[in-house]
Amino acid sequence: MTTDLTPKSESSPETAEVAIDVKNLRVKYGEREILHGINFEINAGETLVILGGSGSGKSTLLRTLVGLELPSSGELWIRGQNFGALSEEKRDEIRKKVGMSFQGGALFGSLSVGDNVALPLREHTRLDESTIEIVVRLKLDQVGLSGFENYMPAQLSGGMKKRAAIARALAMDPEILFFDEPSAGLDPIIAAGLDELILKLKKAFRMTIVVVTHELASAYLIADRMILLDKGVIVANGTVAELRASQQPRVRQFLDRVPEPEISEELDYLQMLTGETPPLRR
Amino acid sequence: MPLTASIGEATINGLAYIGGLARLTGGAASAVFIEPLRGRQFRFSRAVHQAMAIGVEALPIVSLISFFVGTILALQGAYELRTLGALQLVASAVAISMTRELGPLMTAIVIIGRSGSSFAAEIGTMKVNEEIDALETMALEPVNFLVAPKFLAMILMAPLLTTWADFMGVLGGALFGVSNAGFTLGTYFTATLKALVLRDIVTGLIKSVMFGIVITAVGCQEGFLTGLGSEQVGRSTTSAVVKSIFLVVIVDLIFTAIFYFTAPR
User: Fold this and answer.
1) Which one of A262, B47, B94, B142 is at 20 to 30 Å from B166 when CA atoms are compared?
2) Is residue A81 within a helix (H) or strand (E), and if so which, with residue range?
3) pLDDT category, B8, cuts 50, 70, 90?
4) Cα distance between residue B8 and residue B201, in whole Å
5) Is A104 close to B138, i.e. CB distance below 8 A?
């Protein structure tokens, strides 16, 4: 497998407008390739929603964008730098400028909400405790969790956990925010509240926001542009209006919620999800 | 798969596992001893918290177990020594057995049960909840953040606990000695001190530090290797305990051979 990670210079000439640039990205888990050559750009200040069904590779794409997975080939340019070509220290510098909110919140269960939000500040800055306390209160206020500093994560409801996770992601004033399925497991009212929060963050801080979701209602509301991922390739990339007007069959099937034909064979089902031919057919 | 291939695969997997342990230990040791010299501060508060859990909270059970082990040793030893007319040697028998072997080993077993399983469960649960991923995205290296404090706490607490266990074992032997072998507390302790050589105590403590390192590495490694799902955390915890016990005994064999077989008297 030839890799494309030739040692080019670390900075790209057109850094001003593009926050994230993905070029021919391929990602493998062991021998299985999940993403087959992904290409797209995210402009600074834009909100991109990555849509896709199960097995489409959207979680893998998100994990690669935040640096949890390394591509097998292709390039990922973040803030004008080639992430794959950087030293671990430079990558850490980028990670400090990026915030991620995980699907379940991923709050540290042994720390209080306040300590969770304070953690990146305590580890990466030399701010004194009283300043950190103020910042924590500010961030919790921004997400609507004022006064919950001393609660433990186990005491919070699902929606509150997600808000706390967002506060933690905001602690270092990131330039790019990633969300992994923000509405998953939430009732529509709470999910709408989270959409409001994302919109508020977008307007107030003009952050670049990347959201992976399969909730169409949220996507239409918050997205500037949307990408539809299917079986490891991008099948659509455009504004909300463009996608809604698209006549491509896979796009229409996804947006119109048309179910797949019934499949009872396990291997056939797996193939439908991932688009692979299984090695053996019964 | 033919037998030779199975044995080969198992050997390679075993060596890979040991390699993983070595890497984890190296990373933790670097974070504790080397990184601070390069300006990356080490948070001692987390290590103190771990030391409380590993050492202080283990004192009651270590005391009880070592005390009874001491008594058992005295009983077993006296049974044979009586026939040789050498009952007064029971104090030395207990002292030497505890400091060289049973103090470090029994303490390690207790630490495995309490801390080894707890490390695997804690890190395994974090893995399942994506907390390890969250640490990485926040530029907090999981080995520095999670393993290094445990490592430092362990290498301090293991020898301290072992020393306490040695003392409690001697006390347990004294219980027998005073009640059934004609000792007084004073004469028993005098006999004990006469029998003890610095070498016995030091080799025992070195072994206890090695055991502690193995236990920390295996517990954390099993935690990081946890698969997804809560059932997997149980599997990791069990695996951590079983592998720790096995590796501790192997390390015991190696160091006992080094100290008492190859080295001059």
Assistant:
1) B47
2) strand A81-82
3) very high
4) 40
5) no
Most confident of A27-36, A62-71, A136-145, B100-109: B100-109
Q: Least CB-CB distance to B139: which of A63, A95, A102?
A: A95
Tokens of B210: 């090695």
Q: Whole-prediction pTM value?
A: 0.87
What gap in Å lies between CA B129 and CA A230, rounded to an integer?
26
Tokens for A9, please give them. Answer: 């210079």
Instruction: State pLDDT tens for residues A215-257.
Output: 888 899 999 999 999 888 898 899 989 988 888 888 888 888 7
CB contact under 8 A, A107 and B131: yes
Q: Report pLDDT digits (tens) over A24-58.
A: 999 998 888 889 989 999 998 899 999 988 888 88
**CA separation, residue B92 to residues A92, A104, B105, B169, B205 (Å):** 58, 59, 19, 12, 18
Instruction: Identify the CATH number of the domain defined by range A18-97+175-274.
Output: 3.40.50.300
Domain limits, chain A: 18-97+175-274, 106-173
Residue corresponding to tokens 């053996």: A280
**Nearest Cα to B187, choosing from B196, B178, B176?**
B178
Judged on CB neighbours under 10 Å (0-12, 13-18, 19+), B189 is middle
